[in-house]
Amino acid sequence: MNRLLILFIAALSPFFVFAQAIIPTDTITPNVIGDTVLQEFNEEIPTISISESDGKEDGGDNVSSSLNASRDAFYNTASFVFGVARFKIRGYETENYTTYLNGVPVNDLEDGNTVWAQWGGLNTMFYNRENSLGLQANTFAYGGVGGSFSFDVRASKQRKQFQVSYAATNRNYRHRVMASYSTGILKGGWAVAAAVSRRWAKEGYVEGTFYDGYSYFLSVEKLFGNNHSLSFTSFGAPTRSGTSTATTQEMYDLAQNHYYNPNWGWQDGKKRNGVVNSTHQPMMILSHDWKINNRSSLVTSAGFTFGKRGRTFIESNNSAPTRPDYYRYLPSYQEDSTQRALVSYEFLTNEDVRQLDWDGFYEANYTAYDSVIDANGQAGNVVRGNRARYFISNQIEDARKFNLASTYNNAVTEHIAITAGLTYQFERTRNYKVVDDLLGADFWVDINMFAQRDFPDSFSVAQNDLNNPNRILGVGDKFGYDYFITTHKAGVWGQSFFKYNKVDFFVAGQASITSFWREGKTRYGLQPTNSFGKSATKTLPNGGVKAGITYKIDGRNYIFLNGAFENRAPFPDDAFISPRTQNSISPNVKGENIFSAEIGYNFRSPNVKLKFDMFFTQFNNQTRTYRFYHDDLRSFVNYTLTGMNSRHWGAELGLEAKIYKGFSATVVGSLGRYTYTNRPEALITYDNDPNYKGIETVYQKNFNVGGTPQLATSLGINYRSPQFWFASVNFNYFDWMWLAHNPARRTESAVDLVETGTEKFDKIVNQERLKGQFTMNLSVGYSWMLNNQFKKLKRRYFLVFNASVTNITNNKNLVTGGYEQLRYDYFQKNADKFPSRYFYAYGASYFVSVAFRMQ
Fold first, then answer.
1. Which parts of 44-120 fold into alpha helices (H)?
2. Which of 212, 219, 128, 133 is CA-nearest to residue 175?
3. DSSP string computed for 331-396
4. Cα torsion 342, 348, 354, 358: sign
């Protein structure tokens, strides 16, 4: 026990020494306006029993590699326990991680994200995965700067079993039913795996939300002798869900509820949500696996994805804004104290005022009689009826994706292995809006009402599509915008891995070329020569290199150092200034440069597993485009930042230790400083004013990257019984969280004529830091083998129970993030006119499941 205590203290010491070096103080304010390698090469770190002379092994002994020991304490805790605080490993966005299914890359080419909802509800079929964290080498890809995830869901890789389960929870959904069956490899070389599931909730944790999701999975594989296999896998997850949204602290206080949701209202005695997400994008993958010989293999896979994602919104036509938390409705906007008190009382006491007024929307439409002259572009054609003042639109992304990858692994000698691959990705997404519900009206007209207001004497400027002017719309008709984004990306990569007695090292490189363009299907009235047809093609060559070395002190102690540099193409979602209205690409868009390094120490023994590492990543020349609706301008504003730099550095600790007879402990910590390191240039355009182009410097140097805790810690106490039950409790603390800031407030124009050093100046430019918070989680489980009680059973039967409670102390004051609104009051320089919006973590939430398994 004394040795264990010493090891605990030794493990924590470097973490807290590092913490002292980078702890930020509240007195520091940003200076705003002033200055397969084959299996033998893919071993996990072994658990070895070493005598009292441990650490003194003969230098000639062959010590196993430390690479790919990925399911460690830090990763498990960061993935599950830290999720309550929206934690991001190393502060990275999701485009810095690459995801593969049966060998094919599946990251979205428009924004770099992985659409995890495509296989939601299919947990049992996606358990077989390989993780490559950080910059380490792997056997399936070059990898992202944050790491890579590879799921092998082929039928032959599934556990041979039948399983059915039920789960109850009070989170986004309430109930889940799952069933799966896998045959394993049958006589004749066939293998089949299938699964279905259903998740649903009439109302989730947040009032006014709902969930309705199905999932399906089928994989069929045929083995041809010992050297070839061919597999086909298909899955999908059609889902609809009512959403919640962040809102201001004033509205949370008026509703006396940190989970107030402005997206719903009463209609005919039922709650109706106005912002509904829907998705169904099934994927099919065909894979060929060729075992060339005992030392080399080639895996080739092709994947195809199609389907739609949609999100509904309530739109208004020359009518009052629909959101109940609209800033002009709130008490804080009222200048007269008496009126402020009356409005406050109404919000506090009347739920209808705080929610959507569906009856009002219908009533307004029933009385909105109008005549449309020259309807559908036909001179003299008049259409009369109730023209919608309020209606629901559905913003749809209709994607077609094709992915191809081929990966070659060769264990050349006992000490050398090479891995190489080719990839090709194609993505063509059609983005458009349709009329989803006219809310009792007869029709809508496809015009830009804001342009019609600003240019009342111009018929053409107000048209959303000059090729089809004054088009009369019914439910299901496209309107507003309609365009394709097409992206091609081809790449090649290679890696050499060298394994020796005391040292492992690898070198890897990759090269790619990315091309993308826009093709407009409508001729926008404000951009008649720059909206219809194909845009110019943006083509960027990219490349990267990385290398790493591991020094094996002995069979327990490892030191590693990895480094990488790469250039990455910007994503079309950021490169196009306003793809809904025009073909223009921001003129300063370039490739993003990334430099990253990590150094760390691994310790493995039968009773203790420890990993401590420090990392540094510099992102240079980033492009980010923010798009938002501005009430005062009554136009969408496009705010494109180019040449933006940010730095992420910090330390990570993961420790697992057996304590006594089934008891163990985990200590996990992440400590970082994620900041912007320069003053980028912003290009500002308005959709309603094609001639306006503003350029200004954003003084965001030293601002914190928002949206994640930069300090996250957890202490876990676990017990695993010989009778096949377990219990664990985690004590967690999160801090150093900042709101994502509005770049427009960190400009000279934002503080023009405001005296520096005043409270008003500081209110505008300072970044809001959120309070640190404590949470506690509890989980228990039991696996009962029925054969022990029922001896005549021929197969193995299990009942498995699991239960967990997250945030068991019911802490409802944990703000997990939020953002400053992108609108800003340039006239009165009032930073509170458009206050920040916040997300709160759920209070105590549970998940209970029971599964019956036959093997």
1. 73-80
2. 212
3. GGG--SHHHHHHHHHHHHH-HHHHS--HHHHHHHHHT-EEEEETGGG-TT-EEEEEB-SEEEEEEE
4. negative
Specify the pairing of strand 681-686 against strand 689-697.
antiparallel
Q: CA 622 → CA 262, 580, 646, distances in Å?
A: 34, 22, 8
Q: Which residues pair with 164 in a beta bridge?
A: 179, 852
Amino acid, res. 702? N
Q: Torsions phi, psi of 205, nearest 5?
A: -60, -40
Structure tokens at 795: 């197969």
C-alpha distances (whole Å) from 698 to each of 141, 673, 762 are: 37, 20, 16
pLDDT single digits (tens) 313-365: 999 988 889 999 999 999 999 999 999 999 999 999 999 999 999 999 999 99
In terms of DSSP bridges, do strands 663-676 and 538-552 run parallel, antiparallel, or are they unpaired?
unpaired
Query: What Å distances lie between residue 33 and 5, 699, 746, 766, 829, CA to CA?
Result: 50, 6, 8, 11, 15
Residues 6+ apart with CB under 8 A from 219: 125, 153, 154, 155, 158, 191, 192, 193, 194, 231, 232, 233, 234
Q: HEC states along 687-703?
A: CCEEEEEEEEECCCCCC
pTM value surpassing 0.85 = yes
Q: How far is CA 701 from CA 32, 578, 746, 824, in A?
A: 7, 26, 10, 20
pLDDT digits (tens, 9 = 90+) for 745-782: 999 999 999 999 899 999 999 999 999 999 999 999 99
Q: How far apart are the C-alpha atoms of 566 and 509, rounded to whole Å?
A: 9
Structure tokens at 672: 């970082």
Phi, psi for 143 (deg, rounded to 5) = 100, 155
CA distance readout (Å), 798 to 185, 370, 783, 801 = 22, 67, 7, 10
Strand partners, 387: 443
Sign of CA pseudo-dihedral 104, 108, 114, 116: negative
User: How do residues 204-226 score in pLDDT, each as one tens digit?
Assistant: 999 999 999 999 999 999 999 98
